[in-house]
Each structure stands twice: as structure tokens, then as C-alpha cells.
Amino acid sequence: MTTHPDRYDIVVLGGGNAALCAAITAAENGAKVLILEAAPKPYRGGNSRHTRNFRCKHDGPLSVLVESYGEEEYLADLLRVTGGRTDEGLARMVIRESEACLPWMEAHGVRFQPSLSGTLSLARTNAFFMGGGKSLVNAYYRTAEALGVEVLYDAPVRHVALDGQRVTRVEYEHDDATHVLHPRAVIVASGGFQADIDWLTEAWGPPARNFLIRGTPYNRGAVLKDLLDQGVTSVGDPTQCHAVAIDGRAPKYDGGIVTRLDCVPFSIVVNKHGARFYDEGEDVWPKRYAIWGRLVAAQPDQVGYAIIDSRALRLFMPSVFPPIEAGTLEDLARKMDLPPAQLVATVDEFNAACGDTSGFHPTELDGVQTTGLEPPKTNWARPITEPPFYGYSLRTGVTFTYLGLKVDETAQCSTAAGKIENLWAAGETMAGSILGQGYLAGYGMTIGTVFGRIAGREAAAHVR
Amino acid sequence: MYDNPIEEARRQSQICNACRYCEGYCAVFPAMHADRFFSDGDLTQLANLCHNCQNCYYACQYTAPHEFALNLPGVLAEVRQESWEDTAFPAPLSRAFHHHGTLIAAATVLAMALLFWAARHLPGDGTGFYAVIAHSVMVAIFLPAFLLPLAALAVGLRRYWKRVGGQSVTLADLRAAFGSAATMRNLAGGHGDGCNFEEEDVFSQSRRGMHQLVMYGFLLCFAATATGTILHYGFGIEAPYRLLSLPKLFGVSGGLMLCAGTLGMMHLKAKAAPDLQAPEVRGGEFGFIALLFTVSASGLALYAFGGSAALEPLLALHLGAVLAFFLLTPYSKMAHGFYRLAALTRDAQRKR
Ligand SMILES: Cc1cc2nc3c(=O)[nH]c(=O)nc-3n(C[C@H](O)[C@H](O)[C@H](O)COP(=O)(O)OP(=O)(O)OC[C@H]3O[C@@H](n4cnc5c(N)ncnc54)[C@H](O)[C@@H]3O)c2cc1C
Ligand code: SF4
Ligand code: SF4
Q: Is A318 in the B-facing interface, judged by CB distances under 8 Å?
């Protein structure tokens, strides 16, 4: 074990958005900062490298954001998705601070672009990063390094030693050896634990083995577990994760945004026995994709199959893999390893239950529904009749976990005995302090940016 | 780099089309996102809209070692290169010169030798340059050397136009294309910070700046020749011209810009990652830039030392380089300017 002399005031654990915002702010406030990033350089930046936008309050047009998006509307949007499981005080603070984040981000190298094609509904609420999250991460690394922040890649942290109400030691691995640091303050920004499949299985049950992890394989919750084991106060439901239905052919980790599959509302979805199990047309997809993560998780082998015909193919955003295509439903079933007779029967039954489709309208709830079918399809119910037929497999893709470190409005962590003098947390790892369930697009990066800056400022004030 | 660049470009474009994060960087993405299936012609067009700024590579969360192995600048460079070579007339010449800088050098030396020979063996008929090589001889050599490659280029561009499904061109299409090319809008990187090119994810204006120097330097040199021709035929004023004449003002300023720009380009290119370009043609590309540098540097030397005994060798060197340059235009990197204009014109049609 190598012990290093105390060259650093602050050590930041993690190398994503929250870590970088914290490191930059601390360095600007005069602290000597080291970032320990578990991933190698090409994979630096955690889940932040997969993001595309952040949600930003604004009282008038701001940079690429049009019109206005006020605090009350923002909060109402949040409360709707979390079902009220929200710390309103912290949520309001994040919302208010988000407006100042945008110019701060621009000043630190982030560039924005107008809402991407296919996402116009977000043009008012979410500011898109030009080039996506990896370009944001790149810009922050450049800015941080120019400020003298040092970065160590391939440096997973194993232990953060707590002695009473103080962190005394950080242990990490690098070059096949364990190293020890004694910084004066520590900022945890190492994300959730969703990439630790064993932990996920413990929390969720055996089906979790078949889940795909949408983001980085490096967020394994090592620091989180270590701190919780030492009595640091936690928040959030340990058994819950945010999961959506994605393309079943996606890689186990790091498939990111392109594995998203928006075809469900225009399809019927069957399980591996060829049977339907839920109303595919219940609501527009952005409001349902998270529910489908759970629905698919509850099916045998945690897999579903969306079936469409040629008329539906252009109604949704293209996805990363071309669909499986066949001239007949039987052939499609064979190509997808589904029981052919059962699939044909299910489609026939569905087609027979469809009624007048003249009101079909892909971008709104059109009320074109089935009659006498169980489960029903309550919108976009148009018979599947026009070959070629197409199929996609669906699996559960985990975005993040909810269990985290509880922080106060200064991002400081605590134990039952009170505040921990020199430990702060930012980003996904403390997001449970604000959101107990559900998720609002773009809010993760907002939390990370707001709390990252706060943690950096507070830690720097502590070491000064 | 890729066995089948067009298939590989199709695979990568499908991923980009599902992602769209790079939409703001350049004209490639909006054109790509307009559809979800890509014909070979579509991919050829996308490739010619790409100017290899590499912004989308460094921004991409899917570059190797990720299994999606995105490298859009690299694969589009190969498709683009193939499209120039396949549509060129005659195609084998194009393949040879694009791939081999040494062949460019050989062609240049040959052209220079030809002009040395002309200077030695064909009598001059005037003063200054024309005491070395007669004006009529120059015209006899350069007029076809200028017009034949232009005709070959026209054939290539027609083939390109057919391949990408171009429609009949309107004035508005051309205005849009030339406007974009004149400012090199796309080289600003979408946000105005420029390209990633020479130092990983650092944005800089260097490439845009150097490219502007080369393009405008070249156009000024061309203007010098054109005004010289007009003075010669229209007004009977023969070279050499005074410093304060149009041909000289254009020529000297253009020559200086071209010299600086080509040196700058070579420097940037040497620093850039070969795998994000088309590695097979690196030699040809350097050879071509070196040729452009030789054209401009020898031209400037001619201005400076044309009054001395060095006139004859300098003239042969310069005219030889220019001759090689003209002849190689359809078969070298020079062709990219024409194809790019065609692609921008086609893109203007898509948007109308
Ligand atoms: C596909 C996808 C798309 C998303 N899109 C958006 C979006 O558009 N907008 C939005 O707001 N949110 C989005 N999110 C959610 C968003 O990614 C997170 O809210 C946000 O990135 C969290 O930032 P962070 O810095 O806390 O964590 P991360 O960015 O995940 O960073 C965690 C860091 O900690 C490192 N680390 C982990 N363990 C250790 C250890 N033991 N030692 C050292 N380092 C460690 C990791 O390597 C990583 O660098 C998306 C998520 C996914 C998966
Ligand atoms: S290059 Fe990468 S980040 Fe950019 S659009 Fe394509 S897949 Fe997305
Ligand atoms: S390299 Fe530059 S020009 Fe080419 S596709 Fe990428 S961003 Fe566009």
C-alpha cells in the first residue's frame, strides 16, 4: 500500500458531470484538486457521457431555449412524475439554480444546440449539449486541467475511511496497487450502483440478471456501499431502479441513447409465448417507456417482442439496429424464435378487435381502440396487415438506481450523529435526496450541475 | 481501413440517425436525419458534405473500444475518396495519383523537365519570360493542359450528380452552395469554435484559417493569370508586369497566402490522427499540398529573381509545377473543391 504525501486539498471521487462541476468550482476557489476516475480515459465521464440535455428554468428566452419555463411549472412537472415523493425544498433550490447553470456551463466550455430533430417537445424546457454529453465532459476536463486539477484514470476508489464525523483516508487502486490519500475534504460523485448486477439482483430479484445497463459499467456503487456500511445516512428506495424498455439486442452495458425503441405505441407487444400482456396504446411513449421497463421485466425471460407492419415503420424515430423483417407473420415468428401459430392467432385476434381507424393520428392520443380485446389497446389500434412485417425484441434497460447518500442544501453528508465535517456528495449518488421515484428528462444533469457546484464551493471553503 | 466502406458507412449512419447528438456540427447530420434508409448515392452525398473536422468523432460516446466502433470522419473519408476515384475520368489515373505522392512528384518533375527542354530548344520570341519560352509555345502547352482536365472534371461531376440523384440546378441552389463555401461555414464547427482536427478534442480555427489562405491564395493566383491574359490579349501589354499592376498584386499576395496556407495545412495534417481520415491516400494528399506549395513558392521566386540569370530555371520549375497541377486537378485532392460544391448544391436542393 502506497501512502502519498498530502498534495491535494480535495479529492473528488468519480469523473462525470457532477464530479467535474465540483472539481472546477473547487479549483476556481483556490483548492488543489485531484479527480479519481474508475474508468480508463476513453470511457471517462460515467453516465454523463450518454446524456443529451439538461432541464433549465428560464423566465425568458435563454441561449437556445425558447419562451419561458418558470419555477412553478417546472416543479409541477417534477411532482407529477415523482408522485409527490420529492423533497420540495431541495427541488425548488435546484430549479432556481438551474438558470444560472446555463451561462456557467457556457463559460466553462459547454456549447448548446437547438432541440434535436424528433425532440421538438423539449425545445422550451431542455437545453441540448452540442455533440451530446461526451462533448460536455471533454470540455469540462479541458477546463479543469487548465485550472490545475489533476486527473487519475483507471483509479477505482475502494474505501473512504470515516473516523467519527471526519473522513480521514481515501483508498484507491491504480496500476495493480492500493494507494492511500489523506485529503482535507472529499466529494463523492461516483453515481449509482446499477452496473453491479449482483447488487441489483439482491435488490430486485433474479430477473435483474437479464437486465441491460444503459450506461457505464463503472458505476458499481463501491463508494456508496462503503459509506452506507459505515453508517452514513442514506435516502431512496434500495430496491428500486429507473428502467425503460429498450432494444433487446443492445449490448449489456453502455448501449446509451441509440438503443431506445419508440415503436411500442404503434405495435402489439407479445411475450415469448406469443401472448399480449398490456395496453400498448395507453399513452404517448415518453410517458410510458419507464412503465414498459417494468412490464417487460415481469415477463418470462424478461423479454418482449414488438410487432408492426410496414405502415407503422416510419411513425417513430429510427433505432440503432434495423428491425427483423419477413413477408409473413409465420416467417417473422420463426426469425424471432416465437411460436408461429400463437403469434398469428394473437395478431388475428387483435386485428379482428380493431374498429374504425379513420381517426388514426400518430402524434396524439387518437382514441382509435380495440373492442372486446383483453388487454385492450386504447389508442393507435390499427390492424397489422400490410407486409412486410417487422419485429423488435424488447428488454429492460436500467438507467440508474435510487438509493443514495442523503445530503442537505449544502451537499454535505451526515451520519445519525450529525454532519460529516469534510464529506460532500453530488450527482446521481445523492439524487435520491430529491427524487424518491420517477424521473423527469434532463433533471439528472441539473441536479449534478447544481450540487456539483455547491459541493465544490463548500469543500473549498472548508479547506481554505 | 474498411473492407467495404459504403456498407460500414451505412451501419454507422444508422447509429447516428438513432442518436442525433451531433446534429448541430455540420450539414451532414441534418441531411442524414432526413431519412432512415440510406442508398449508396445518399451515403456518397453525405460523405461529400463531410469536411473531416472530426468534431463528431471526439464527441461520440460510441468510438472504439466501444463495440459500436463509430468513426464517422474516417468512414466518410473513405467513401468520399472512393466516390472521387470511381467517378473520375479516366478512373485509373485518379486511383494512381490519389494514392501515391511519389507519382505526383514524378509527374511534376516530368513537367518541369519538359519545360526545361522547351526553354532550351524552342526559341523565344520576346522580352522577359518570352525571351525564354515563346508566348505561343506557352499557350500551345497550357491551353490544352487547362481545358482537358476541366473537361475530365465535368465528366466526373456529371457522374457524381447522377449517383446522388441530383435535379436540375437553379440559381438559388448555386447561391446557397457558393455562399457556404465562401465562408466555409461548416468549418466553423456549428458553434463557431472551429474543428477538433489537430489536437484531439480541442477546438481551433487553425484549419479553417489555413484552408481559407489556400483557397483565397489560389483564387488570387488564378486572378493574376486571368488579368495577365486580359492585359496581354485585350491591351497588348505583355509580361513581365510592374509591381503595381493587377497581375502582380494578385499574384504576390496570392502566392504568399498559398505558401503560408499549404505549409500550415501540412503541419496540421501531420498532427491529426490518420485513422480519422483516409489513411491510404495520406501520401497523395501530402504530395498534392507539396505541389501547391511548389507552385506558389516558385512563383514568388520568379517575381523576386526573375531579372537575374536564374530566370530560365525558375521559369521552368514554376511552369512545370503549374502544368503538373493543372493536369492532376481531376485526379488529386484538388478535385474535392468541385465535388464539395456539387454536394452543397445538392444539399440546397434537399432543403428547398
Ligand atoms: C443513456 C442515458 C441517457 C441519459 N440522458 C440524460 C439526459 O439527457 N439528461 C439528463 O439530465 N440525464 C440523463 N441521464 C441521466 C444522467 O446520466 C445522470 O443523471 C448523470 O449523468 C449523473 O451524473 P453523475 O456525475 O452523478 O454520474 P456519472 O456521470 O455516472 O459519473 C459517475 C462517475 O463515477 C465514476 N465511478 C464510479 N465508481 C467509482 C469508484 N469506485 N471510484 C472512482 N470513480 C468511480 C464513474 O466512472 C463515473 O465517471 C441519462 C442516463 C443514461 C444512462
Ligand atoms: S457520431 Fe456518435 S455521438 Fe455523433 S451522432 Fe453519431 S453516434 Fe451520435
Ligand atoms: S467530421 Fe465534421 S464535417 Fe464530418 S460528419 Fe463529423 S462533424 Fe460533420
A: yes
> What 3-state class would DSSP assign to A399?
strand
Task: Dump the DSSP string for A1-17.
Answer: -EEPP---SEEEE--SH
One domain for residues B238 and B171 = yes
| Whether the Cβ atoms of residue B88 and residue B331 lie closer than 8 Å to each other | yes
Indicate if ligand 2 lies below 6 Å from the C-beta of B62: yes
- Domain housing B336: 90-351
Q: Are A169 and A160 in contact (CB under 8 A)?
A: yes
Most informative mutation of A50, A51, A52, A125 for ligand 1 (most atoms within 8 A of CB): A51
* Residue A428 CA to ligand 1 centre (angstroms): 7
Residue nearest to atom 8 of ligand 3 (CA): B26
Q: How many A from CA of B71 to the centre of ligand 2?
A: 9
Residues A311 and A325 both lie in one domain = yes
**Domain endpoint, select from A361, A382, A397:** A397
Q: Are A248 and A69 contacting, i.e. CB atoms less than 8 angstroms apart? A: no
A442: in domain: yes
> 3-state class of A272 per DSSP?
coil
Q: Do A256 and B62 touch (CB under 8 A)?
A: yes
What is the spatial distance between Cα B237 and Cα A391, in angstroms, rounded to a whole number? 76
Question: Considering CB atoms only, which of B15, B56, B201 is closest to A258?
Answer: B15
Separation of B70 CA from ligand 2 center, angstroms? 7
Euclidean distance between CA atoms A431 and A447, whole angstroms? 7
Q: Which of B12, B26, B198 gets mutated to test ligand 3 (max ligand atoms within 8 A of its CB)?
A: B26
Both A413 and A393 in one domain: the answer is: no
Classify residue B204 by its DSSP letter: B
- Which ligand 3 atom is nearest residue B57's CA? 6
- State whether B168 and B192 are in the same domain: yes
Residue finishing a domain among A348, A373, A397? A397
Say yes or no for a CB contact (<8 Å) between B59 and A318.
Answer: no
**Does residue A37 have its Cβ closer than 6 Å to ligand 1?**
yes
pLDDT in tens, chain A (464 residues): 676 667 899 999 999 999 999 999 999 999 999 999 999 999 999 999 999 999 999 999 999 999 999 999 999 999 998 888 899 999 999 999 999 999 999 999 999 998 888 777 899 999 999 999 999 999 999 999 999 999 999 999 999 999 999 999 999 999 999 999 999 999 999 999 999 999 999 999 999 999 999 999 999 999 999 999 999 999 998 888 999 999 999 999 999 999 999 999 999 999 999 999 999 999 999 888 889 999 999 999 999 999 999 999 999 988 899 999 999 999 999 999 999 999 999 999 999 999 999 999 999 999 999 999 999 999 999 999 999 999 999 999 999 999 999 999 999 999 999 999 999 999 999 999 998 888 899 999 999 999 999 999 999 999 98
The C-alpha cell of A321 is what? 439496429
Q: Is B194 helix (H, G, I), strand (E, B) or coil?
A: coil
Q: Does residue A292 sit in the same domain as residue A154?
A: no
Q: Domain for residue A148, yes or no?
A: yes
Q: Give the angle A373-A377-A381 at the CA atoms, nearest 5°.
A: 105
What's the domain range around A274? 244-397
Task: Flag whether A150 is in a domain.
Answer: yes
Asked whether the ipTM of the predicted complex exceeds the cut of 0.85, the reply is yes
User: Which one of A116, A256, A320 has the shortest CB-CB distance to B61?
Assistant: A256
Inter-residue contact B321 to B287 (CB < 8 Å): no
B176 shares a domain with B46: no
Give a yes or no: residue A425 inside a domain. Answer: yes
Q: Is the C-beta atom of A51 inside 6 A of ligand 1? A: yes
B204 touches A at CB < 8 Å: no
At residue A138, what is the residue type? N
CA B56 to ligand 3 centroid distance, Å:
6
Supply the DSSP symbol for B125. Answer: -
Q: Among B52, B83, B114, where does a domain finish?
A: B83
Are A280 and A131 found together in one domain?
A: no
